[in-house]
Amino acid sequence: MKAFNLIPAEERGGAGIGAGKSGGGAFVVLGLLGLLAIFALLYGAARHQISSRRGEVATLNAQAQVAQAQATQLAPYVSFMALHEQRVQAVSQLVDSRFDWAHAFHEIGRVLPKDASLASISGTIAGASVAAATSAAPAAPATTSSSATSSTAASVAVTSATPPGSIPTFTLSGCATSQAEVALTLDHLRLIDGVGEVTLQSSTKAAGSGGGGSSSSGGCAGSDPVFAMQVAFEPLPSVATTGSTSSTSTAAASAATPATGASTAQPTTSAGGAQ
Amino acid sequence: MTTRDRIVIIVLSALAVVAAAWLLAVAPEREQAAKIGAQVSAARSQLATAESSVVSARGAQAGYAAAYASLVSLGKAVPTGQEVPSLIYQLEQASNQKRVEFASITSGGGAGSSSSASASPTAAAAGFTQMPFTFTFNGSFFDLYHLFQQLNGFTLRTASGGLRVSGRLLTIQSVKLTPTTSSTKGSSGQLTGTITATAYVLPASQGLTGGATTASPAGVTQTTSSSAPSSSVTTPAVIGASR
Fold first, then answer.
1. Which of A23, A241, B7, B11 stands 20 to 30 A from A122 (CA)?
2. CA-CA distance, B161 to A249, in Å (whole number)?
């Protein structure tokens, strides 16, 4: 038997999307309109964004210009503060690079044995005397320095006359009642705060009797030995730290009473403490 | 033309319209919006930078008076000129306080040069100019020790790390203590202290305050009337060395 379609030919195809007289074209048009509506929305949003952002940019630029103008007007204050900072740092560097001579003398007076006395003290900072001597002054440095090794101190950026790394050195000459006292003096000098090295240069008993006969430096009594020794401190700090030997703190000298040995250079009593 | 062909044509046409609308209208606007968004970000960062500059400048302005006073105070330690009279005055005052006789001052750091006190500064490569001197003091060990303390104390660091300036900044390079040779009355126990020291001077190119006055630094246009004196500050000729 042959199959036969009873549905009329114009109604065949079911009730699908493309059914109808337009053949689905209406849906396409609707979809197109929908997309165009979305696009129109996006376009409008973009336009709005553009206009609002343009306004914002203009406002921000204006504010930035005002702020810039204010900053420019106040720029001299900033420059002045920079100058101030630079000056403070430079002075601080110089202050920190100094050697605390008072403290060193205080320490020498503190540790010197009572049976030793000093005839003269000469302290110098190796590397500093040369720096000072590079000035227009033709004369030699005032003190008897040991050996000024660094002559480039003045030419470095830090203009301190006592550049970092310089070694303060003291030359002490005096008398002691015996050679053992000279040895004790050497030992005691090593106790000084910040001392690096203590070396004996000489310790000689006078050949003849009589004060001052052979010991021209100190007028030692009788045959007391005349000594000369060198005390080298630690090098000056290279950074702006306040070390024990370079700090500007004022030591309370009254707390540490100097030795009471009679001497021309050595303090004879403890009455002269720091005020 | 079949129905299917019509549908294909309609769909293609719709796609073409959609693409054209996107490419010609929406996309350029969105692109421009994005560009302007970047401009907004740039403008914001520019404003932030400018505002931070203003804030720091206002901070500098607020601290100007203190910085100016500090800078002038530093002028006591490192003046613009040689200020030898001021230095002599300070040394004399300090030695009087410490019962030490201020015997001599020699410029140049040389013991033998007996020229008058017209120091010959040494211009360093950078920073301050050095002025070497040699001073001679007579006094007891303790008095000289106290004098050294006082000389150091002209300019020193405080516990808080700041600077306290009450006089000329001196860097002592060498000290020599010897018995006083003269047999004058009361010279027993007296020492002669010979000190080689360096004072410092600001370079000629730098003013003490860089042209600033008490009211404002150089270059500031005054928009408001200021009652502060407008005289420029120079290095104080004589300052008190005592504390």
1. A241
2. 12
